[in-house]
């Protein structure tokens, strides 16, 4: 049952990811992206990583995708706004991506993973309580630095988005 | 309460490796194939997410919380990156009326 769920979610993720790449309309790309994140949230829940599932749901599907969708609608993009590359380069790029995939699979094929340590296995590591303990004990400095990063990003986004006097804007 | 989740018992870790590799390659192909800067951005998000999933899988299989903390930081950095990047794209669009990267080739040598 869980195995089938894994295969279904993996198929859904890959299908939606391909949809992101091949959709002509940017809005459909965003919607496929949301489907990808939804499936990935399912993966996190399957792996018993509840905290990451919640963060993925809120941050990615809630914040980042709304930002993308807002920008796409703000810029008023349509299907015909993007000129497409010639067919030859599309085929070449697809072959390059496929070759990269084959090479990585070939390299990873013989990797032997360590078996799951059944004696000391702790299935609760992905819960908010345990991750919070690790986050605020071992990773307190990176956590605080992340808040500085967010402040810098916020100030930078506001500064970049501000209209300047010499700019010729026709909105 | 402390039993091993079913997915870890039934699915080998190699499958997550292959799946993440496929997702990463789709992201790379998207970056190379599209010309809209916003779609390229989204394909970078795809690649970040494939790495996130792989880190989570390793972390869950090894029952080691550090990998999931790393995923949390990757998500935080990705959110900051998206905010600044989209601001840059909007600024470029206001000046040039386009987000086509073939026109944005001012840094080309």
From TrEMBL, chain B:
In terms of one coarse class, where is the protein primarily found? membrane
Listed GO cellular component terms? NADH dehydrogenase complex; plasma membrane
Annotated compartments: Cell membrane; Membrane
Q: Record's Gene3D superfamilies?
A: 1.10.287.3510
Known Pfam families for this protein?
A: Oxidored_q2
InterPro entries (alphabetical)? NADH_UbQ_OxRdtase_chain4L/K, NUOK/Mnh_C1-like
Enzyme Commission numbers on file: 7.1.1.-
Q: How is it placed in the membrane, per its record? A: Multi-pass membrane protein
Question: What keywords appear on the UniProt entry?
Answer: Cell membrane, Membrane, NAD, Quinone, Translocase, Transmembrane, Transmembrane helix, Transport
Quaternary structure, per UniProt, is: NDH-1 is composed of 14 different subunits. Subunits NuoA, H, J, K, L, M, N constitute the membrane sector of the complex.
UniProt-recorded name of the protein:
NADH-quinone oxidoreductase subunit K
In the UniProt record, what gene is named as encoding this protein? Answer: nuoK
């Amino acid at each position: 049952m869980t195995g089938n769920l894994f295969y279904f979610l993996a198929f859904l993720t890959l299908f939606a990811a391909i949809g992101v790449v091949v959709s002509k309309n940017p809005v459909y790309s965003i919607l496929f992206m949301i489907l990808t994140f939804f499936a990935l949230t399912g993966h996190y829940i399957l792996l018993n990583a509840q905290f990451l599932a919640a963060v993925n749901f809120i941050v990615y599907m809630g914040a980042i995708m709304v930002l993308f969708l807002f920008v796409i609608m703000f810029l008023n993009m349509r299907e015909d706004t993007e000129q497409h590359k010639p067919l030859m380069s599309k085929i070449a790029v697809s072959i390059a991506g496929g070759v990269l995939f084959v090479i990585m699979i070939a390299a990873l094929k013989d990797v032997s993973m360590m078996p799951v340590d059944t004696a000391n296995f702790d299935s609760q590591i992905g819960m908010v309580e345990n991750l919070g303990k690790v986050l605020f004990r071992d990773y307190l400095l990176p956590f605080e630095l992340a808040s500085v990063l967010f402040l810098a990003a916020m100030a930078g986004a506001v500064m970049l988005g501000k209209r300047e006097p010499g700019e010729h804007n026709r909105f | 309460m402390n039993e091993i989740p079913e997915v870890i018992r039934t699915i080998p870790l190699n499958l997550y490796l292959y799946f993440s590799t496929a997702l990463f390659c789709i992201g790379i192909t998207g970056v190379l194939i599209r010309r809209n800067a916003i779609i390229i951005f989204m394909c970078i998000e795809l690649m970040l997410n494939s790495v996130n999933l792989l880190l989570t899988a390793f972390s869950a299989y090894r029952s080691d919380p550090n990998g999931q903390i790393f995923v949390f930081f990757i998500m935080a950095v990705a959110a900051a990156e998206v905010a600044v990047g989209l601001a840059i794209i909007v600024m470029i669009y206001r000046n040039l009326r386009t987000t086509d990267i073939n026109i944005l080739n001012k840094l080309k040598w």
